[in-house]
Design a protein that fits this description.
Largest sheet of chain A: 4 strands, antiparallel
CATH topology of chain A: protein ne1242 fold
Oligomer: heterodimer
Shape of chain B: globular
Largest sheet of chain B: 4 strands, antiparallel
Radius of gyration of chain A: 12 Å
Mean pLDDT of chain B: 94
Distance between the termini of chain A: 35 Å
Number of domains of chain B: 2
Number of helices of chain B: 8
Order of helices and strands of chain A: EEEEEEH
Strand content of chain B: 5-15%
Helix content of chain A: 10-25%
CATH superfamily of the largest domain in chain B: Di-copper center containing domain from catechol oxidase
CATH architecture of chain A: 2-Layer Sandwich
Radius of gyration of chain B: 22 Å
Order of helices and strands of chain B: EHHHHHHHHEEEEEEEEEEEEEEE
Chain lengths: 78, 399
């Protein structure tokens, strides 16, 4: 499992890519996204792009872009 | 049963705006939280209502149930959902956003809507149903702030969408590369979201999650989407719903659409194709088989002109902005009018009480034609088989 950590506007993004085992031997079939430790329910579109429950009407090429959009939409203050 | 009329929100009187706002807030405040039930339903059944052919019939049923609930709390069976034509009322200064109706944009810091009847501080509008990504209990908007949707779809975008056929194409999902449904829903691959999706993104804030009905403008937006489907159906009467099979469950013509897939409550796309059979209509048309009684009228969408039928059997096109008629059928006052009917053969006919023809448009032989009243100041009879109207009054200006 590949784990990517990054930060956007003081919020922590964690992306777990499929292909490995978690600590509890649970196989990861789909990538998982966490923002500030909270799991984000990701929607995989047929063209391979990503949306989420919170950012539903547009899609993004990567989970990182989706996470940044979610933070911009729901968490960040200008 | 009298049909409920759904009209352009820009034509609502202040009283009608207030009536709608009060009904929505009362539905939110009911003991069983009826309004929030709709928000939850839109979230729980997002797959049933999006990204596939059932996008339009699912939301048609969803809106009609909401409209009936509004009528109940308002104790007014004539209350109809208004629609927001975002291709025309397309700026943050449009009247829809005034503080007596939908309220305005969110504040720049956190997007919170602080004016109007749905501001959090009013106490009437806490967001009780939220996805884990939405920490805030207040309504939020950020007009045009997303780089993917700086502006709303244009009238040309709408016309282009209405020309798209067939209804849908394989693979019957977000990946469908053409067809009316996905053009309108807005997943056609491109650099930016389009049409329906673009409007959600342009409003931003609470209109972005699956819980988007938290923003009451959701209903006005989707009412316009439903009107565009109705317009498309009139313009393409030979194009039915697709597919009958091959889409994922819930999206084929005769599949029950969750959550309305219960033995006592079953709704399929096939059940909602004729919106008039559900009890409502949109302004601007007289469709085949429809008729006017004396003193009834058909308004253009923004009420810049009205087609009246008077008790002498005269058909009159007038404008609120002019003391002169724009056009009359000229039958004078020598007759008694009983009804003016858009016949299924394409002829518009004024009859007296004995059934004798007082006047007609002499356009028989054009089945499925319909009468349309345009904001530009004319009335026309259009045939799905012809690109130009087969009849219009006043005659179009040339040169």
């Amino acid at each position: 499992m590949a784990r990517v950590e990054e930060s956007h506007k003081d919020h922590e993004i964690v992306i777990e890519e499929p292909g490995g085992k978690l600590e509890l031997e649970e196989e990861v079939q789909e990538p998982r996204l966490f923002i500030d430790g909270r799991p984000v329910n990701v929607v995989r579109r047929p063209d391979g792009t990503y949306s989420s429950e919170g950012v539903f009407y547009t899609s993004y090429a990567s989970l990182s872009e989706l996470a940044r959009a979610s933070i911009d939409t729901h968490l960040a203050e200008d | 049963m009298a049909l409920v009329i759904r009209q352009d929100q820009s034509t609502l009187s202040v009283d009608d705006q207030l009536k709608f706002v009060h009904a929505v807030r009362n539905l939110k405040g009911t003991v069983n939280r009826a309004y929030d039930t709709y928000v939850q339903m839109h979230w729980d059944y997002s797959d049933a209502g999006h990204g596939g052919p059932a996008f339009l019939p699912w939301h048609r049923e969803f809106l009609r149930r909401f409209e009936l609930d509004l009528q109940r709390v308002a104790n007014d069976a004539t209350l109809g959902l208004p629609y927001w034509n975002w291709s025309v009322d397309s700026t943050p200064l449009a009247g829809i956003w005034n503080s007596g109706f939908m309220g305005g944009n969110g504040q720049t810091t956190d997007g919170q809507v602080t004016n109007g009847p749905f501001a959090y501080k009013t106490g009437y509008w806490p967001l009780n149903v939220r996805t884990p990504e939405e920490p805030n209990p207040y309504l939020r908007r950020r007009f045009g702030s997303d780089p993917n949707a700086r502006s709303l779809p244009t009238p040309d975008d709408v016309l282009g969408t209405l020309r798209a056929t067939p209804y849908d194409v394989a693979p019957w999902d977000e990946g469908s590369g053409s067809g009316f449904r996905n053009t309108l829903e807005g997943w056609i691959p491109g650099p930016e979201p389009q049409m329906h999706n673009r409007v959600h993104v342009w409003v931003g804030g609470s209109m972005l999650p699956m819980t988007s009905p938290n923003d009451p403008v959701f209903w006005l937006h989707h009412c316009f989407i439903d009107k565009l489907w109705a317009d498309w159906q009139v313009a393409h009467p030979d194009e039915g719903y697709l597919p009958t099979a091959g889409a994922r469950p819930g999206h084929n013509l005769n599949d029950p659409m969750p959550p309305w897939n219960q033995p006592t409550d079953t709704v399929r796309p096939a059940n909602v194709l004729d919106h008039r059979a559900l009890g409502y209509r949109y302004e601007g048309y007289l469709l085949p088989g429809e008729e006017l009684s004396p003193f009834q009228w058909v308004g253009s969408p923004r009420h810049t002109c009205l087609l009246w039928y008077d008790n002498y059997g005269d058909v009159i096109l007038s404008s609120p902005n002019s003391t002169n008629f724009l056009w009359t059928s000229g039958t004078g006052s020598n007759f008694i009018g009983a009804k003016c009917r858009m016949e299924t053969n394409g002829n518009l006919v004024s009859y007296d009480p004995s059934g004798k023809v007082i006047w007609d448009s002499k356009t028989a032989g054009n089945p499925n034609s319909y009468l349309v009243v345009r904001d530009e100041g004319y009335v026309a009879i259009c045939s799905p088989k012809a690109s130009d109207p087969i009849w219009s009054r006043p005659p179009p200006q040339r040169g």
